From TrEMBL:
Residue ranges constituting the SGNH hydrolase-type esterase domain according to the UniProt record: 9-196
Signal peptide from the UniProt entry: none
One Pfam family of this chain: Lipase_GDSL_2
SUPFAM superfamilies noted in UniProt: SGNH hydrolase (SSF52266)
Protein's name in the database: Spore germination lipase LipC
């Protein structure tokens, strides 16, 4: 095997694997897929917080321990935005003012842009081959008539942040088709099948620049 890779997974409850119960979330599965595909060992660390918003992610990126682990990272996955949208919806149900969604969308863009900038500065200071994957949002509340519109808008924010090193990973079509079969019982979080699907979509996004 070649030299080991360093995988840092940061974000909300999806990164933490909430809902997977006795199985593991997408992080460990994606790491194992990478080992098998690239024939290289992968050392994984998770920095996740249940119900994390983009503002909390922005604050976490200043944690010196997190920064020290990102310095040598080769693979970074980020799950964020779902809680921003959920919080905006709670406010909307009290006010019925759609401006709350627009404000949340703007904050997501600003906070994530800042977070990605900080990671890229660290990688510029300590250069190693790396990529960042932004995992898109799925719609856990399809019964809300307006939900699909705002999930798409938030995903457009993630998609707009793509660069040579950053790719958006779309999971919405698969979760829309799979419906409740991909969610844990009584939960809005993925089950084992849903998390495996996320891992597969990450793998399908490619490994450039880690491959020749």
């Amino acid at each position: 095997m070649e030299d080991e890779l360093f995988y840092r997974a940061i974000g909300d409850s999806l990164t933490a694997g909430v809902g997977s119960y006795f199985s593991k979330g997408f992080v460990s599965r994606y790491g194992q897929m990478t080992v098998e595909y690239l024939n290289r060992p992968v050392r994984t660390e998770v920095f996740a917080q249940n119900r994390m918003t983009s503002g909390q992610l922005r604050a976490m990126i200043h944690d010196q321990h997190v920064r020290s682990r990102l310095i040598n990272s080769n693979m970074v996955t980020i799950t964020i935005g779902g809680n921003d949208l959920i919080q905006a919806n709670r406010m909307f149900l009290r006010t019925y003012n759609p401006v709350v969604f627009e404000h949340a969308e703007q904050q997501l863009y600003k906070n994530l842009l800042y977070t990605l900038y900080e990671i890229q500065i660290l990688k510029w200071l300590y250069p190693t081959p790396y990529f960042i994957r932004l995992v898109g949002l799925y719609n856990p509340y399809p019964q809300l008539g307006y939900s699909q519109f705002w999930v798409n808008r938030f995903n457009d924010v993630l998609r707009s942040l793509q660069t040579d090193h950053i790719r958006y990973v779309d999971i919405l079509p698969q979760f829309t088709d799979g419906g409740r079969n991909l969610l844990a019982f009584g939960s809005i979080h993925p089950n084992r099948i849903g998390y495996n699907l996320i891992a597969q979509q990450l793998m399908n996004s490619g490994y450039h620049p880690l491959t020749p």
